[in-house]
Design brief:
With about 575 residues, this protein is α/β, with parallel strands linked by helices. It is about 45% helix and about 15% strand. The chain contains 24 helices and 20 strands. Strands 3-4-2-5-6-1-7 form a 7-stranded parallel beta sheet, sandwiched between helices. Bound molecules: adenosine-5'-diphosphate (ADP) and magnesium ion. Magnesium ion binds near residues 51, 52 and 152.
Length: about 575
């Protein structure tokens, strides 16, 4: 369906046409007609599906000459980038419509300038929740006159802690308003807001994600704990994408990884929410003009930017939400081009999470072995071969070759030396990958172990099975993977495979045992001996946990001690 089939004013159609839009996207087709009628809408749709126009066009169309000087539409966005971007696009829609004033308000920019703009009679205000609240408090934005309120990327706003602000704003706006909510995911918190603040909303759901996903080849690599950075360096070297996005879950990881990549000669740049606006613009520009080939970003930062069609997407961390996975990989393979997405996983928990993503997206993510150095050398040889074959003739070189030949170094030898030098230069910085593949656990009893320390002990009436249950639950590992459990008065040590300890510490902070918040860290002390009488005589590490846990006590005794309701049941049976 085309835009000109909609009942839109000539002014708007002209602006839309100028933007090069002819056919509507799915979300636009489904929501624009409803929104034009003033009905509430709750829309679920992914990034890049054209939501800004979906709500922006009806917003612009709703402004009448009577609205001069009044705030009529309020659009809330999670970040200032998104607010700026939406404002820019909506301004374009309003280009030919007289008397429509669009204003963006967001933190980190002069409030005076924004006050000035609002006072000059902005009709459509686009802002981040915090700054919008600020303007309402200062009475520079009067919610009484608002007729439409739009929440863009509602889930992201909640993730960023804007719930209270959003609810305050929603309760300040007159009740007979139109309320529109767009979100990529629909967690219960969003449903609650919908129920509380929307009036018989029409649901619009777009399943465009599947289509994108099918075009993208997806692979995963299993990597040993703590070796993801090395693995990524290897993959970047092997595939040499001319543009790639790497996703991490935290700002700290973005910084650390970017630094690591740059240190090893990759042209990488990081992007996250803590960066100043200027820095972010710089990073985006460098990526767009290809000075940086690799953009390392968090999900939130990546949402605010208009990047698509990258050669490859790497998930350094698994996304925290399945829907994010689709967003991430959607950055590659746009517009019918096939793209590739690579995911790095460490540990069983992540493998489970990956399987869950596979189910969610109804697509296969295939395992691929990490290439090793010799694979990469072979790949580089291939590309060097192609490169040289395509080089222009270089007459200057003959002179040098002739002189070398006079020195006894023939053409063949000279060329080989140069090619080898180039090959070495391209592969010298590769990390050593002997043990980057995950250690297979349980094959041999001889796997190295360390101990982790858990900040809870006998004084909290803790039993080994509590500890083990909590560990299995938090890590997704099998009970067999944990060794000896030693319970002291105020702490407990657990023997774990060395290759897994970082992962275990990662996935157990935070963790609760029997209602108590505990901290898990690497145990640095010597193995203690003065403890509750369940010490192994030889004090050797052992994976025979059950024997350890129950030795010296009968099972019923253990349970009756520590699990009150189990005790009752036991009693009844007797
Ligand atoms: P979303 O908010 O869903 O992530 P955007 O509104 O930012 O998506 O739109 C993504 C891109 O698609 C923008 O560059 C926008 O200009 C473009 N776009 C939106 N609608 C259309 C359309 N009907 N035809 C062509 N391009 C469109
Ligand atoms: Mg958007």
């Amino acid at each position: 369906m085309n835009f000109n089939e909609l009942d839109l004013s000539q002014e708007l159609l002209r602006a839309v046409d100028e933007l090069g839009f002819t056919e509507m996207t799915e979300i636009q087709q489904q929501s624009i007609p409803i929104l034009l009628k003033g009905t509430d809408v709750v829309g679920r749709s992914n990034t890049g599906t054209g939501k800004t126009a979906a709500f922006g066009i009806p917003a612009v169309e709703s402004i009448t000459p009577n609205d001069k000087g009044k705030a009529v539409v309020l659009i809330l966005c999670p970040t200032r980038e998104l607010a700026m971007q939406a404002a820019e696009e909506i301004r374009k829609f309003s280009k030919y419509k007289e008397g429509v004033k669009v204003s963006a308000v967001y933190g980190g920019a002069s409030i005076e300038k924004q006050i000035h703009e609002l006072k000059r009679g902005a009709n459509i205000i686009i802002g981040t929740p915090g700054r919008v609240m600020d303007h309402i408090r200062r009475h520079t934005l009067r919610p009484e006159t608002l007729r439409t309120i739009i929440l863009d990327e509602a889930d992201e706003m909640l993730n960023m802690g804007f719930r209270e602000d959003i609810e305050t704003i929603l309760s300040d706006v007159p009740e007979n308003r139109q309320t529109v909510l767009f979100s990529a995911t629909m967690p219960p918190e969003i449903m609650a807001i919908t129920e509380k603040y929307q009036h018989e909303p029409v649901q619009v759901k777009i399943k465009s994600s599947q289509r994108t996903v099918e075009l993208i080849e997806q692979f995963y690599f299993e990597v040993a704990m703590g070796r993801k950075t090395d693995a990524l360096r290897l993959l970047l070297a092997a595939y040499a994408p001319s543009s790639a996005m790497v996703f991490c879950n935290t700002k700290a990881m973005v910084d650390q990884l970017t630094e690591e990549l740059v240190k090893h000669g990759f042209r990488a740049a990081g992007l996250h929410g803590d960066m100043k606006q200027m820095q972010r613009t710089q990073v985006m520009n460098s990526f767009k003009n290809k000075t940086a080939e690799i953009l390392v970003a968090t999900d939130v930062a990546a949402r605010g930017i208009d990047v698509s069609g990258v050669d490859a997407v790497f998930n350094y961390d698994l996304p925290q939400d399945n829907e994010y996975y689709i967003h991430r990989i959607g950055r590659t393979g746009r517009a019918g081009r096939t793209g590739t997405a690579y995911t790095l996983i460490s540990g069983r928990r992540q493998l489970f999470d990956l399987r869950a993503i596979e189910k969610y997206i109804h697509a296969e993510i295939r395992e691929m072995p990490l290439p090793d150095k010799s694979d990469i050398v072979a790949m580089k040889k291939e590309s060097l071969l192609k490169e040289v074959a395509e080089l222009e003739a270089g007459h200057n070189g003959y002179d040098i070759l002739d002189r070398l030949a006079a020195m006894g170094i023939d053409y063949r030898e000279a060329s080989a030396r140069l090619l080898t030098r180039q090959l070495n230069a391209e592969t010298a910085a590769l990390p050593d990958f002997e043990n980057a593949r995950p250690l297979r656990k349980g094959k041999k009893g001889g796997a190295k172990t360390v101990r982790v320390d858990i900040s809870i002990g006998r004084s909290k009436r803790i039993a080994p099975n509590f500890i083990l249950g909590a560990l299995v639950d938090a890590t997704g590992m099998s009970g067999k993977d944990f060794g000896k459990i030693d319970i002291y008065d105020d702490h407990t040590t657990v023997e774990v495979p060395e290759a897994e300890y970082e992962y275990i510490i990662d996935s157990t902070n935070p963790m609760k045992i029997n209602g108590h918040q505990v901290e898990v860290k690497l145990f640095k002390g010597k193995p203690q001996t003065g403890f509750s009488g369940r010490k192994r005589p030889d004090n050797k590490p052992s994976f025979d946990r059950k024997k350890r846990a129950y030795s010296g006590r009968k099972k019923s005794e253990l349970f009756s001690d520590y699990i009150p309701d189990r005790k009752k049941r036991t009693k009844k049976r007797h």
